[in-house]
TrEMBL record:
Taxonomic path: Bacteria, Pseudomonadati, Pseudomonadota, Alphaproteobacteria, Sphingomonadales
Domain EAL span(s) in chain numbering: 23-273
Protein name, per record: GGDEF-domain containing protein
Domain of life: Bacteria
Length: 275
């Protein structure tokens, strides 16, 4: 479960009712935001640490609110999840992301974040297959990023979803690795092609020896199990060097690029291929 960052109180005080009112407001506005064209998908590169080339873009949703300005997903995705709006929103995100990816060279893949509610919605797997078909994107070019929270309940629907899409060639990545619990049980059970080591492991300008040892162990496991290890949240060259030396093959973070609009993503790819 995600913590909303605000201090918990025992009383139903005015800040709590304000909070509730704010959530209701976000919910109502989210429902119409897609139609009003206020949402867009940005793309953040995931880079091959050996060659420096872009292998994947992660789709990250952005909401440009006419009054409130840019809203971060951490603010509205939880509301979308609690209210069920995430199903409509998620379908839209997948469709947009697939359309953008269809314009890129064949060896570049697209990663899309999935919430657990999306997976449990009826016809969830079919919705993704249809989005791929409509965009004419090969299923092997889609990677779905899931977190451990996905596996906490209702494993039947989750299992069906994962096996249906895996059999069609869609890949799965385990996101925010190292922050939940029983993670290794899921690594053992599901066919992940990637593990994304949570940003908290590289926070701070340097990576400590301790952290480096942990990343090294995860990378070794990845190599044995044929999974690639992505280091997230790389902001400095020191961090990039440390995680590469520890055995991570892929990296993502502001050191390389922030999430950018689709035309810039396409430009980054074109630039790389001209060199
Ligand atoms: P996430 O999947 O772990 O995504 C990575 C987040 O880290 C993104 O924040 C990204 O902008 C940020 N980030 C990347 N590199 C760096 C760095 O070097 N330093 C720092 N400080 N941050 C970095 P963002 O876009 O605000 O997304 C936050 C979370 O919202 C995501 O975490 C994901 O859980 C959720 N989210 C975003 N887009 C979607 C979506 O389309 N669908 C769903 N279900 N969730 C989404
Ligand atoms: Ca992610
Ligand atoms: Ca992550
Ligand atoms: Ca996250």
């Amino acid at each position: 479960a995600k913590v909303n960052g605000r201090r918990q109180t025992c009383f139903f005080d005015s800040s709590m009712s304000r909070d509730l009112a704010r959530r209701r407001e976000i919910e109502a506005e989210l429902r119409s935001a897609i139609q009003k064209n206020e949402l867009s998908i940005f793309f953040q590169p995931i880079v091959d640490l050996a060659t420096g080339r872009i292998r994947t873009f992660e789709a990250l949703v952005r909401w440009f609110h006419p009054q409130k300005g840019e809203m971060r997903p951490d603010e509205f995705i939880p509301v979308a999840e609690e209210t069920g709006v995430i199903v409509t929103l998620g379908n839209w995100i997948t469709a947009q992301a697939a359309k953008a990816a269809a314009q890129w060279p064949d060896d570049v893949t697209i990663a899309v974040n999935l919430s657990s509610l999306q997976i449990k919605a009826p016809g969830a797997a079919l919705g993704i297959v249809n989005a791929l078909r409509e965009a004419r994107l090969d299923p092997t070019r889609l990677e779905l990023e899931v977190t451990e929270s996905l596996f906490l309940d209702d494993s039947e629907a989750t299992d069906a979803f994962i096996s249906e899409l895996s059999s069609r060639g869609v890949r799965f990545a385990l996101d925010d690795f190292g922050t939940g619990y029983s993670s290794l049980a899921y690594v053992n059970k599901y066919p992940f092609s990637k593990i994304k080591v949570d940003r908290s492991f590289v926070s701070g300008p340097e990576v400590s020896n301790r952290t480096e040892a942990i990343i090294r162990a995860v990378a070794e496991m990845g190599a044995q199990l044929d999974m690639e290890i992505v280091a997230e949240g790389l902001e400095t060259i020191e961090q990039v060097t440390a995680v590469r030396d520890a055995g991570c093959t892929l990296g993502q973070g502001y050191y390389f690029s922030r999430a950018v609009p689709d035309y810039l993503a396409a430009m980054l790819l074109a630039q790389e291929r001209d060199e």
